[in-house]
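Please predict the structure of the following assembly.
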Amino acid sequence: MENKPFSTQVCLDDFIPATDEEKEYMVSMRPSSTFFKDGIKRLKKNKIAVISFFIIVIITLAAIFAPMFWPYSYDQMLGVNPGQPVDNSFLNLAPFEYGQSEIARMEAGESVVPHIFGTDSQGRDYFIRVVYGTRISLAVGFFASIIVLLIGLAVGSVSGYAGGKVDLIIMRIVDIIYSLPDMLMVILLASVLKMVLDNALEGTVLSKIGSNILSLFIVFGLLYWVSMARLIRGQILSLKEQEYVLAARAAGAGGKWVIFKHLIPNCFSVIIISTALQIPSAIFTESYLSFLGLGVNAPMPSLGSLASDALNGLSSYPSRLVIPAVVISLIVLSLNLFGDGLRDAFDPKLNS
Amino acid sequence: MSEQQKNDNLVEIRHLKEYFNVNVGFFKSRPLKAVDDVSFTIKRGETLGLVGESGCGKTTVGRTILNLYKPTSGEIIYDGKPIKSKSDIKGFRKKATMVFQDPYSSLNPRMTVSDIIAEPLDVHDMYKSKEERRERILELMGYVGLNSEHASRYAHEFSGGQRQRIGIARSLAINPEFIVCDEPVSALDVSIQAQVINMFDELQEKLGLTYLFIAHDLLVVRHISDRIAVMYLGKLVELADAKEIYDHPQHPYSKSLLSAVPVPDPKTARANKRIVLSGDIPSPLNAPSGCPFRTRCAYATAKCAEAMPELKEISSGHFAACNIL
């Protein structure tokens, strides 16, 4: 059919039904997307969270791998060599300064790894001590959060799923622990456990880690699971009323099946977020316990004990306080920001 | 299956009571009589429709029959055997399943369709190899008209009707004999309702299923049911063949309920008189004494307040519980 110019006549050829092949072409399956893929997509868009994540990864990798190729060790006093008089030139070096024997070696043409953060009052390389301190802090943070998570998850899910009297009793216990002043309890428990563990650990591998660190884990496990347990109980209470739980029970599933297959996977986002936010608070607690002298055993450093030691020479060597303080702040800040990013990405209530 | 067995009652409910304790004060609790002394039977291969207004205990009856709630008293007899002990219930779970009302909350959002459908199989360990499990899933998806490409997807990627099909496939997984359908179509729109209802019919024919079909849409119930039971405030008030109850309802409540059915023909609709009840349904927490319907019944007498009238057979296969009959 010929169409006249300027005519409003509709060209009928444009409206013939599509052939099967054309229809086939138009049908395309949207790629299957899970809740987690969606969440990660949202997380990637959050620049602050991504940067924080990379800072955490870099610090963690440095804490794990730096001691492997760094020539000094955290408890090596560089001025002290067997058979030679103590070389005082290694004490209290400022960043990028060298001891007398090192200057001599450099003049002889040897290369010497610089003390990029200087040395401390006993002539130990400060950089490696900060790295070890970071290692301890991160380890305490991660393991303490995992302990808190495991206890909180177990207690919270049983309490929420069982309901009734079991729930009532568990929640009253939680309330009691919640109402104790945590700082006082942490300090009391840490000092009591230290005495008990010191005897028990003598001669075992664990004695090297120190009873203090272990008592810290125990303190975390005993005190900080309560808020996690409450959170998970609340989630489970609302999830167990869902019809898919009823459907599973109608199919003959028992409590274990329902909790592991249905309830816990559905509170995964809450679990991840609160664990991520638990880590910095554990690091913080460890730091100030170490600062108060209840942390790791000397000569093992932690960021808190490094800061505490640095207080003595604060006016002469301020960098020794600033460096561990900056590292603590960096770790805690980036973990908090990353945790916030996770919450924004995975908490469906905040999504518009 | 012999002819004799076919006529057997598959499910028999005797004096079923289900009371929930409801806290009314700080330490006080009062029983809420969700289901109060209900008895009926379901024959093998038939569909019993259960109707009544919201909150009358239909869903509770369905769930109690499947032992999802422990009955307060009364007996559930399945295939001639009472279901009481834990081992009875375990065996019973392999024969009776349920289809749920809300296709949005009855599927776990973290599971793929194949995991959802295979869940009863996994729970009962009913396959030998991964391959057998996969084949069974595909077979079930075929029954309910789902594409095999859907197996690895998540529930949120489907429409309401498709989700309900997934739920139905799950309930068929264990090769059940008896399915409680708890308002399976009320959350779907009308065109999808028709598809799903027809699918229930086809599956019944193909697999020889027995349904307890709970609904409040009276036209849907009429279409699918062989017999219909009417409930009011936790009590059974009338039970008869589908046609009989629609043509000659006897109980005053059934009469009023059925007069509310919309008729797609204006002439008949105008000729039919709608019986409008006065007042609201009483709270089941303090239900009236005797017949629960007496507060809204036009024929109520002093006798009605004394005791709940017995369910009497007023004509062959037609039972009603009312003093005026």
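Chain B has two domains: 3-95+176-320, 109-175. The longest strand of chain B covers residues 9-23.
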